[in-house]
Every structure is written in structure tokens, then in C-alpha cells.
Design a protein that fits this description.
Number of strands: 20
Helix content: 25-40%
Largest sheet: 8 strands, mixed
Number of domains: 2
Structural class: alpha+beta
Bound molecules: 8-demethyl-8-dimethylamino-flavin-adenine-dinucleotide, P-hydroxybenzoic acid
CATH topology of the largest domain: FAD/NAD(P)-binding domain
Length: 389
């Protein structure tokens, strides 16, 4: 088989890139290790920046997001028993859309099926070849048979555990990492949200987040220990701990219901440089991870895809390689700013197991400064709604 761009991974990054390329008549094939149902079963992001929403529109799959997504003009930051609103619309004139990654993935999959573009699910043992030559190839196994795709370029959109980043030699790739000493335990529940907007709560027992997927479905998180297992946390225990970390009004409005999803996610900051090697590009979680506190992971995947889409369309439509040569530097410049924001939000809001009294005082001062200073709130708002592409 031959294609122009072979895309590894059918997560949001791979599907969005595929849809944008297909719209421009650029041939692409997506190879995905899992089944489509498995990919849709992963419960992840919930907050979409304007830039990412615009890109979904450009890909022709934004209609349901605009119909069903919830526009949020701010967030609430809670500490010391009180909640403080950060008004994005007033501070920076923008808002975000609360719409689940599962729904975005479904919309992209449906758009791809309607366009008739090929996705090969359950592709095993994907391997990349001749990425520094003129004629790269991708090999995989499907139903026991070996296959090969010849292409011009490979987009590595296969997430943190994928094969693409590992195909770049150690002598070329530099990684930067911070692993946080805690995780997030999250549940999904068919109950209305505690508040109209997201509540990010800092408490001496640990961080908590009240988020949502719709007016009738809540997504709730609490900071947990890395030793904890999901089985240790009954719904009762989860709600009891969440209540301890919320203010009285939020506790009064919290409706408990049986969770239908419960999982623990570790928190990590990670960046691999460069994001291009020869004819291989990395995009999304394949190149970088942020802790979820700033809601940036999916949105960064979208901005990488934007730069890569521009680069590939410049190449195929105008014969220019300028965008291809600039891709890694352009993407990384934005990635590092989102890394900084996610690290800062995480550092300010979580309880670190071995933090000293001084460090805790610094966190309290940071929060007090944030909610008392229009400059500080504007900085949070500008980053939360998303820096320009
Ligand atoms: P994905 O979604 O991991 O998709 C990669 C795909 O590649 C496949 N794959 C392979 N395919 C073929 N061959 C191989 N060898 C392969 N290896 C892997 C995988 O099966 C998969 O289908 O990466 P992508 O597309 O870069 O998208 C990134 C986002 O999924 C991620 O950044 C966000 O979910 C992060 N995130 C959040 N981001 C936000 O913008 N806002 C949020 O509110 C937000 N909340 C979150 C989050 C992530 C969380 N977890 C669990 C990590 C909340 C949580 C709890
Ligand atoms: C979510 O709804 O899953 C969510 C929202 C905001 C975050 C992280 C996760 O910062």
C-alpha cells in the first residue's frame, strides 16, 4: 500500500490530523493498535480551548460540540473554605468549551468514516523504517499477516507509550521530565454538577476538582497517593474524602450517585525534543505530557496538529518545506509555555507529601495573591483559555 502521510495512533491527535489532511485532498492512513471501542472507552479530557474548537470546525466535525458543549466563562478556585471566581470573559474576553474527549473522538471517527478515509484498527507490531531517508515505510501485522505502507511522511500520534518516539535514536532525542508524588482518582457519575463552573480546590488533605460532562453528568477528582488502588476506594469513601476538601456550599450541593467509571491517573510533566526526525513528526502525548491540572493535554495535541497540518499542506500545495523545517521549534515554543502553566497550577494546588512549613506558606501566599490581583488572575485566564497558535 502507498499513501502520502502514514499516521500512527487514532487518538484525538491522529484523528484530527487525518481529518484536516483528508479535507485538503492529502492521502493518509491511520494505524491504531486498539479497537475503536477501546479508544472510545478511555475517559480523559473535558476542557476545549477556542483554538482547538476552531480546528475541530476546520475539520468539519464541530457541530455537535457547539450544540451540546457547555461554554464556561470562568473557573472557581477554592481554598480556606471560600471560593473565588476567575472571570475569563471579563479578564481576557474568551471562554472555553466543556465537552468530553470521548465525544470529540466519536465525532472525529464519524467524520473519518463519512469521508471514507482508511483507519486500520488492531494493527499489531507497528514499526517505522527509513525515517531519515526519502522513502519511509511503516510495517504492521493484522490478523497474523505482515503489511507494509510506503509513504512520504509519518505522523507519530501514538501517545506516551507509542512506538514513534522510541524510533528516534537516543543520540538525537532529549527528554525532560518531572514525576509528581501523587495521582488523581476520578469518577464519572450521572448527577448534576456541584456548580455551574469547574471548582479547583486546594485543601490540606489534598487537591480536589469538581468538573462535568453535561448538566446531568459530573466528573469528580481527588488527589490520591500513588500507592492507592482503585479497589481501595468505594464510592462512599470517595465522597467522604471529597466533601472534606470542599467548602460548605459545594458540600450542600453535592449529589452522590453510583460511579460508572473510576480510575487513577499518575501526574507527570514530560517533553521530548526535537519533535521531528527526518520524515517522522511527533504530535500530542507522543512528544509531551502535562499534569491534568491546567486541562492542557488534548489542547496541546490540537496545536501540534495545527502546525503539522499547515506544514504538510504548504508542502503538498506549494512545494515549500519551510513549515516542515520549522515544525519542531514552532510546536515546542507553545508546548513549553503550556508545560509551565500546568506545572504551576499543579504546584500551587496540590499537597506535596514532604513539603515543609515554608513551602506550604508559599502555596497559601500564591493563592491569596492570585485571587487578590487582577494581573495574576489575568495571567491564569490567558493561559487557561489557551495561548494563541
Ligand atoms: P492518545 O489519546 O494517547 O492517543 C494515542 C493513540 O495511539 C495508540 N497507540 C498506537 N497505535 C499503533 N501502534 C502503536 N504502537 C501504538 N501505541 C499507542 C493508542 O492506542 C491511542 O489510541 O494521545 P493523543 O492523540 O496525543 O491525545 C492526547 C490526549 O489524549 C491527552 O493529552 C489528554 O487526554 C490529557 N488530558 C486532558 N487534556 C486536556 O486538554 N484537558 C483536560 O481536561 C484533560 N484532562 C487528561 C485529562 C488526561 C487524563 N489522563 C487519564 C491521562 C484528565 C485525565 C484523567
Ligand atoms: C475533566 O473534566 O476531566 C477535567 C477538567 C479540567 C481539568 C482536568 C480534567 O483540569
Amino acid at each position: 500500500m502507498r499513501t502520502q502521510v502514514a499516521i500512527i495512533g487514532a487518538g484525538p491527535a491522529g484523528l484530527l490530523l487525518g481529518q484536516l489532511l483528508t479535507k485538503q485532498g492529502i492521502d493518509n492512513v491511520i494505524l491504531e493498535r486498539q479497537t475503536g471501542e477501546y479508544v472510545l472507552g478511555r475517559i480523559r479530557a473535558g476542557v476545549v480551548e477556542k483554538g482547538a474548537a476552531d480546528l475541530l470546525d476546520a475539520a468539519g466535525v464541530g457541530a455537535r460540540m457547539h450544540r451540546e458543549g457547555l461554554i464556561h466563562d470562568g473557573i472557581e478556585v477554592a481554598f480556606g473554605g471560600e471560593r473565588h471566581r476567575i472571570n475569563f470573559r471579563e479578564l481576557v474576553g474568551k471562554s472555553v468549551i466543556v465537552y468530553g474527549q470521548t465525544e470529540i473522538t466519536r465525532d472525529l471517527m464519524e467524520g473519518r468514516a463519512a469521508a471514507g478515509a482508511p483507519t486500520i484498527y488492531e494493527a499489531e507490531d507497528v514499526s517505522l523504517h527509513d525515517i531519515t531517508g526519502d522513502k519511509p515505510r511503516v510495517r504492521y501485522k493484522k490478523d497474523g499477516a505482515e503489511h507494509e505502507i510506503a509513504c512520504d511522511y509519518i505522523a507519530g500520534c501514538d501517545g506516551y507509550h507509542g512506538v514513534s518516539r522510541k524510533s528516534i535514536p537516543d543520540s538525537v532525542l532529549r527528554s525532560f521530565e518531572r514525576v509528581y508524588p501523587f495521582g488523581w482518582l476520578g469518577i464519572l457519575v450521572e448527577k448534576p454538577p456541584v456548580s455551574d463552573e469547574l471548582i479547583y480546590a486546594s485543601h490540606e488533605r489534598g487537591f480536589a476538582l469538581c468538573s462535568m460532562r453535561s448538566h446531568t453528568r459530573s466528573r469528580l477528582y481527588i488527589q490520591c497517593s500513588l500507592e492507592d488502588r482503585v479497589e481501595d476506594w468505594s464510592d462512599e469513601r470517595f465522597y467522604a474524602e471529597l466533601k472534606r476538601r470542599l467548602d460548605g456550599d459545594a458540600v450542600a450541593r453535592l449529589q452522590k450517585g453510583p460511579s460508572f467509571e473510576k480510575s487513577i491517573a499518575p501526574l507527570r510533566s514530560f517533553v521530548a525534543e526535537p519533535m521531528r526526525h527526518g520524515r517522522l513528526f511527533l504530535a500530542g502525548d507522543a512528544a509531551h505530557i502535562v499534569p491534568p491540572t491546567g486541562a492542557k493535554g488534548l489542547n496541546l495535541a490540537a496545536s501540534d496538529v495545527y502546525y503539522l497540518w499547515q506544514a504538510l499542506s504548504e508542502f503538498y500545495k506549494q512545494g515549500s518545506k519551510a513549515g516542515i523545517d520549522a515544525y519542531s521549534a514552532r510546536a515546542l515554543a507553545r508546548v513549553w509555555k503550556a508545560e509551565r502553566f500546568s506545572w504551576w497550577m499543579t504546584s500551587m494546588l496540590h499537597r506535596f507529601p514532604d513539603s515543609s512549613g515554608f513551602e506550604q506558606k508559599m502555596q497559601q501566599a500564591e493563592l491569596a495573591y492570585l485571587v487578590s490581583s487582577p494581573a495574576a488572575m489575568t495571567s491564569l485566564a490567558e493561559n487557561y483559555v489557551g495561548l494563541h497558535y
